[in-house]
Amino acid sequence: MTRWLGFSSGQNARIILQKNVWGVPMRFFNWIVRTEIGDTLLIYVDQQGAGRAASPPTVAACFEIVSDVYRDTARIFPGPVNFGDGVLPYRVALRPIAVFDPPISLEPLIPKLSFVADKQQWSDYIRGQAMRAIPEDDFRMIMDAQRRAMPVPPMA
What sequence ranges are listed for the domain EVE (predicted)? Predict the structure, then answer.
């Protein structure tokens, strides 16, 4: 089983959560075909906006991949301009494992994440790919951070 970090805009992350589907443009086909049923996919949402109004990069959810890669040209993703025409035609179906409410910030974890080679320019290091495999220890660290961020339910 492989652990994946998938990169998304905030708008596309909402669609992923609604439709339980992950898609990439044609130029990232060689990445998505490496996925297998049973792999997990963490959804990384890139920084939204600019200046003081910007929201920080976060991890919004964890999914299990439940289908082989398929091609679908329905325009469900608005897709960033640099990802081609926005179709994101190569897709896998997903089953939610956890929706992070609130989403967790990745920044405090960067010094400890082994898959991030350049700790100073980490956001540049992460950007530019649709997805990347991450080590099990890094996956566990992100999931543990999410559990720690969850509110504790009141005692009955």
Answer: 4-144
